[in-house]
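Design review, sub-item: ligand-bound model
Attendees: FS, YL, KQ
YL presented the inputs for the nicotinamide-adenine-dinucleotide complex:
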Amino acid sequence: MPKMADNRTHLILENYIGGKFVPCARHIDSYDPSTGEVYCRVPDSDTEEVEAAVKAAQEAFPDWSSRSPAERGKVLHKLADLIDAHLEEFAQAESKDQGKAITFARTVDIPRSAYNFRFFASSILHHTTDCSQMDHLGCMSYTVRSPVGVAGLISPWNLPLYLLTWKIAPAIAAGNTVVAKPSEMTSVTAWMMHAPGVVNIVFGTGPRAGDALVSHPDVPLISFTGSTATARVITEHSAPYCKRLSLELGGKNPALVFQDADLDECIATTVRSSFSNQGEICLCTSRIFVERSIYPEFLKRFVEAARQWKTGVPTDNGSYNGALISKEHLEKVRGYVKLAQAEGGQVHCGEGVDALDLPERYRGFFMLPTVISDVADASRCMQEEIFGPVTCVVPFDGEDEAVRRANGVRYGLSATVWSRDVGRVHRVARGLQAGLVWTNCWLIRDLNLPFGGVKDSGIGREGARDSYHFFTEVKTIAVKH
Ligand code: NAD
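KQ shared the predicted structure:
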């Protein structure tokens, strides 16, 4: 693992190409969101650096792809061991780089990053291919799967190492080699992860390093997690090469709370689902539809609970939330609250209502959990992804109305349903336009099962079998005997 600099000097990151750190001539600043100060300098890679990384990945492919899944699995386990052994260093770095609370990094980001490697090291051993017999033609057919080649992986800033390893692990487990480009805003933990030579990491911005990867003719596959707007550009720029794309995009996730819900459980979980990681999780709840008979009680109790969701210094063990990723993002999120107010929305807590008390040094991009009511479904706050600690609460009458309004957005990533009526839970879950529906819970994930969105929330699914299919090419062979 590369040496971390002390607090007085900035880290200067280097690309990781062909198993070696390679300096880059140009850099961009990356900030500590809690102080607003420069934390590190990230390579500003472009076509030349991406070209070198693709070449290294191509050279590593014949050896890596010819190894057995079990042999490749051993390398994945080693990576997981390394992350586990340095969990605290990784968690501190992730918290400083992204602004997130250290407790979240320690209990979610970093353990899951290690688990991603362990999970795919094991799951790759259990896939089978298909076989079919056509006796009347004296023929049998079967399928074989092979790695695709050099996989291009592009990830966002909100769960930096977690989402990057969610791509690297299945890609290399299936025998591909990789060129990965993490977000330019959160590159440190990817740089700390001492990956094997089959994983090449180029740092830099989307329009330069990211686009060079997307437009590279020898990268047949792109797995992307990020915004819907960027996905459109990636789709366009990869079209001339007919690349295979997996797109995991934004969300505008509803919670549907029926009058028979267990309100204690529902409120505690919905506060967590709305505000965890500063609301900067694609699966965060941002529209809460509450059955009218319990709406006043829900709103009152939800606002009280939101006020208890402590925003503070990220390194403080007692903070649930830290700072938002950047000044620009904070301004964008605040802009939505102002817009809601201008349209007659009522802000019950958080932004503009409650004061944040932080030590002098922490002049970064903090914002309190904010709850808004009295907004129309058509308003931008109810339609667009805010990706911050803001959620809207509105009443509904009846199951059909709730489902129709929940579906009334461009996105379709996830949803939660709160009811004790088992029939309703199944009906509503079936009716919701979303890739994932949680009922009476949130964020419980079996990695074997598909993850992904519908509508503007994405194309494709990831998970044990889905990732294996995405990262391999299938061939059907017919043999006449
Ligand atoms: P973003 O789209 O701005 O950036 C994501 C990545 O794409 C970064 O590495 C960026 O450098 C790169 N990029 C930007 N422009 C590019 C281009 N033209 N070509 C190639 N690469 C380019 O997204 P973000 O702001 O980093 O992340 C937040 C978004 O990610 C939100 O919309 C959130 O919902 C979404 N997200 C989705 C999931 C999911 O699993 N569905 C998970 C996390 C985040």
